[in-house]
Design a protein that fits this description.
With 177 residues, the chain is of the alpha/beta class. The chain contains 7 helices and 6 strands; from the N terminus they run αβαβαβαβααβαβ. Helix 5 packs across helix 7.
């Protein structure tokens, strides 16, 4: 993408020197490089780049407004999970929310190959990957609340979920309730 999330990631503790942005669009990469000189942004396909990357090297992999372009989201998330070290996280985000992506998929199914995973689907994917689901409420999304329905409603307007690798045995991870 255009690197719009990078300032927020840095504010949350990410190190821009270790950041690696990836996009297919040369226009998006030009914008990212102009906004964030000295930060690594590369052009390419995630699946191709991920296949060539050594495993367990990233703290997080962020799919920001991108997951809907994968026909097989589970395969993409499986590959992304292999790139995570320690208690890494897969972060699934779309600023316009799941409702927008559903509408986008209905209007343009040749480009938008899937919709954003529901809470249940994300939990199932996390279980398959040995990862724990962190809900919008746990991630601090405004308007989200524990108990499912509020989280579902929050996802429609601003989609944000994370899957976190398990820590040491008995450690439930860093997400709170």
């Amino acid at each position: 993408g255009d690197g719009a999330a990078l300032p927020y990631l840095c504010e949350a503790g990410a190190d821009a020197a270790r950041y690696a942005g990836l996009d297919l669009s040369s226009r998006m990469l030009r914008a990212a490089r102009a906004s964030h000189p000295g930060v690594r942004f590369e052009q390419g396909s995630f699946l191709t780049a991920a296949a060539a990357a050594p495993p367990a090297q990233y703290d997080a992999v962020l799919f920001n407004g991108a997951l809907q372009f994968f026909g097989d989201q589970r395969a993409a998330l499986r590959r992304a999970a292999a790139l995570l070290g320690g208690r890494g996280r897969l972060v699934l985000a779309h600023a316009n929310g799941a409702a927008f992506v559903r509408d986008e998929a209905a209007r343009n199914p040749q480009t938008v190959l899937s919709t954003m995973p529901s809470l249940e689907e994300a939990e199932e994917i996390g279980s398959e990957l040995g990862m724990r689901l962190l809900t919008p409420h746990q991630l601090g999304v405004p308007g989200a609340a524990p108990g499912g329905e509020a989280d579902v409603a929050a996802l429609d307007g601003f989609y944000l979920l994370a899957l976190e690798k398990a820590g040491p045995e008995g450690d439930e991870g860093s997400g709170g309730d």
